[in-house]
Amino acid sequence: MRVTLLGTGSSTGTPQLLCDCPVCHSADPRNRRTRFAILLETAQTTLLIDTPFEIRLQLLVAGIQRLDALWLTHTHSDHFAGIDDLRIFSFRNKAPIPLYALPSVIDTARDRFKYLFDENEYSDISFLDPRPVTGDGPVTCGDLTLTPLYHRHGQSAMASFRTGKFAFIADISEITDREIEKLRDLDTLVISCTVKHDHYKHMKLDDILVLIGRIAPCRAILTHMNHRFDHEELLRTLPAGVEPGYDGMVIEL
Ligand SMILES: [Zn+2]
Ligand SMILES: [Zn+2]
Ligand SMILES: [Zn+2]
Known about the structure:
With 253 residues, the chain is an alpha/beta fold. The chain has one domain (2-252): Metallo-beta-lactamase, Chain A (4-Layer Sandwich), CATH 3.60.15.10. 20% of the residues lie in helices and 28% in strands. It has 7 helices and 14 strands. The strands form 2 sheets. The chain has a 7-stranded mixed β-sheet with strand order 6-5-4-3-2-1-14. The structure holds zinc ion (3 copies). One zinc ion is lined by residues 74, 76, 153, 171.
């Protein structure tokens, strides 16, 4: 399986508009971060996680030729506002794109992009085919078997997942011991690490590192970083086994 971090920025992206900080003015291309999206590819299946504002540009850069399904973690705009761009894949597939998400996330997505869920003027099929994610049973998506992971992100309920020895955890403020138990024996964990200081919607860096220590994957990669995180500084200061991601990073598993 190949994992591509399409976007590794927080909601405002890096550089952030109107900001004079050193990271926003850095010449290091790894400090230029578009919004959160991850692509999983196997021989048979291409699965996208989230559709941020830049999804079209991210998929062009990745050279993607097919898309089989979308997993949507939640409906904050930085993960969701680009969903209209997936229409092109339903045209190509001549079928709706399966959309895996929590029932509440599907409801909100339908409220905000109703035309993607209905028959429409272009075709008698819809663009998206909602598949509610509930319970602990694995979700089969092509040749991928996904184990849902439930956690909190401030007021928002979140669904991330594990597949094989890989897992990702999107924006997080809390996770129960029960869900952490699903993450034993991981090779690679990709996890949102948004802020350095206390934030009501996000665990700060120190708490993310404690959580990574409890999960104990062979390799942990940080994503969803805000503009206070300098890539080089993270490489120097993070503990062994933890590293910052960057846009376009490819992980082979
Ligand atoms: Zn986010
Ligand atoms: Zn800045
Ligand atoms: Zn969010």
